[in-house]
From TrEMBL:
Protein name per the record: Efflux transporter outer membrane subunit
Membrane topology per record: Lipid-anchor
Main location: membrane
Upper lineage: Bacteria, Pseudomonadati, Pseudomonadota, Alphaproteobacteria, Sphingomonadales
InterPro entries: MdtP/NodT-like, OMP_efflux
Subcellular location(s) per record: Cell membrane
């Protein structure tokens, strides 16, 4: 009991230690308050896909969240990080284990202890032992504290990584869905164009036979008809490929997804106006920036873990149990054993490895700081680029729509002139061909505007919800 009385004051002294290594503080990044590209103020829509007004798109994104393999992997990574965090926290508590053994022992007669010459001492004997061992490493230099800090930061990083997967997943499903609907619309337009070119080829053949057109006019008409037929097949292939890519994203087999998406549907227009929010809020909303910041926090804590190796480790050890040569004597008072006391471990010489590990941890922290700085710059550049792209795509789509409207008016006039005999059917076919080409350009412009909207929402950090803590 005298030893125990001396241990308790020592334990109190050790508990008053310090935490080595740098204390982490989040980087303070100055961001200009105004968008360069004139972002519209307002709350960023976190469920932006609903603004496209397409129930099937919404259903596909929700299915990807529920069944997609990418998000399943990210969720598992988050669970792993949280388990590692709990393991690190558990390392700060005392460890207790139960022990038990039953052994048959034979001592050497030629060893240091001359057992053969000791009266009544048998060299072979059984030994039974039952008890409990306990140990507690006192966190004198903050090693365990820093380990918990690092594990907590990595769990936060995994959580932000899951958000980033959700954001990317929603954008990829939407992007491929828009490609699918645009390809289906293009297919329909190309089929009409192929019919028009076939009719133009037939009419040109008649004119060549009548001597009204040269033979090379027929070659040009035939080549245009063949090109239109090939374009139809290419557009159909693009639609099928987009459906297969969506199948991967939502965790479905291609043969199950293709029939679901094979029926043509209108290309979603997307929102005409997108709120960009406050520019400085972008850094807290973008999950990739949050991931980089949390990894910097973990790397900073790792410096403290490595630094603690320079100092001695103090532990309190204890063991209590029963030990006897026979089972009958195992639970008697005289069979009780007890061991308690402090333990010290101090690496006096390690060949410079400890300080090398500290330098390595410091270098990793500097690298993590550079990664964070790049993530901030990338977030700002992505957002400004997406704002510019959306505005440009909006203007281009409006211009293409106006051009198509004018071409449709021209086609209507050509039909009236053909009906009155003022122009021939070949001229009408050519006017219809020009209108269909404008229709294709208008579809592509609408697809680009919708794609630009998706890219803007992704750049602004919209498209995720916090997962429940489990």
């Amino acid at each position: 009991m005298l030893v125990t009385a001396r241990i308790l004051p020592l334990a109190a002294l050790l508990l008053a230690g310090c935490t080595v290594g740098p204390d982490y503080a989040p980087p303070q990044t100055a961001v200009a308050p105004e968008w360069v590209e004139g972002g519209i103020p307002g709350e960023v829509d976190l469920e932006w896909w609903r603004g496209f007004g397409d129930p099937q798109l919404t259903a596909l994104i929700e299915r990807a969240f529920a069944e997609g393999p990418d998000l399943a992997e990210a969720t598992a990574r988050l669970a792993e990080a949280r388990a590692n965090r709990d393991a690190a926290a558990g390392g700060r508590l005392p460890a207790v284990s139960a022990t038990g053994s039953a052994t048959e022992n034979i001592l050497s007669e030629e060893g240091q202890l001359p057992v053969g010459q000791i009266p009544g001492f048998e060299r072979d004997f059984p030994l039974f032992d039952l008890g409990f061992d306990a140990s507690w490493e006192i966190d004198l230099w903050g090693r365990r504290t820093r380990e918990v800090e690092a594990a907590e930061a990595r769990a936060d990083a995994a959580r932000a990584g899951r958000r980033e997967v959700m954001l990317t997943l929603a954008a990829e499903v939407a992007r491929n869905y828009l490609d699918l609907r645009a390809a289906q619309a293009d297919t329909a337009t190309l089929e009409a164009l192929a019919e028009t070119d076939a009719e133009a080829e037939r009419l040109t053949r008649l004119r060549v036979a009548a001597g009204e057109d040269p033979h090379d006019a027929l070659d040009r008409a035939a080549a245009a008809a063949q090109a239109s037929d090939a374009a139809v097949a290419a557009a159909q292939a693009q639609a099928t490929a987009a459906a297969y890519r969506i199948a991967v994203l939502v965790g479905s087999h291609p043969e199950d997804m293709a029939p679901l998406l094979s029926r043509p549907a209108p290309l979603p227009a997307g929102p005409q106006v997108i709120a960009a929010g406050i520019r400085s809020d972008l850094l807290t909303r973008r999950p990739d920036v949050r991931t980089a910041e949390r990894r910097l926090a973990a790397a900073t804590a790792d410096i403290g873990v490595a630094t603690a190796d320079l100092f001695p480790r103090f532990s309190l050890l204890g063991s209590i149990g029963q030990q006897a040569r026979s089972v009958d004597d195992l639970f008697t008072d005289g069979a009780t054993r007890l061991q308690v006391g402090p333990s010290l471990s101090w690496p006096i010489f390690a060949g410079g490895t400890i300080r090398a590990r500290i330098r390595a941890a410091d270098a990793r922290a500097k690298a993590a700081a550079a990664v964070y700085e790049k993530a901030v710059l990338t977030a700002l550049a992505d957002s400004e680029t997406a704002l510019n792209r959306f505005a440009t795509a909006q203007a281009a789509a409006d211009a293409q729509a106006a051009a198509l409207e004018r071409q449709e008016s021209a086609l209507a006039l050509a039909r009236l002139r053909a009906a009155s005999g003022e122009t021939d059917r070949l001229a009408l076919a050519q006017s219809r061909r020009a209108m269909l080409n404008h229709a294709r350009a208008a579809t592509d412009a609408r697809r680009e505007r919708a794609q630009a909207a998706v890219a803007l929402f992704k750049a602004l950090g919209g498209g995720w919800r916090d997962p429940p803590e489990t």
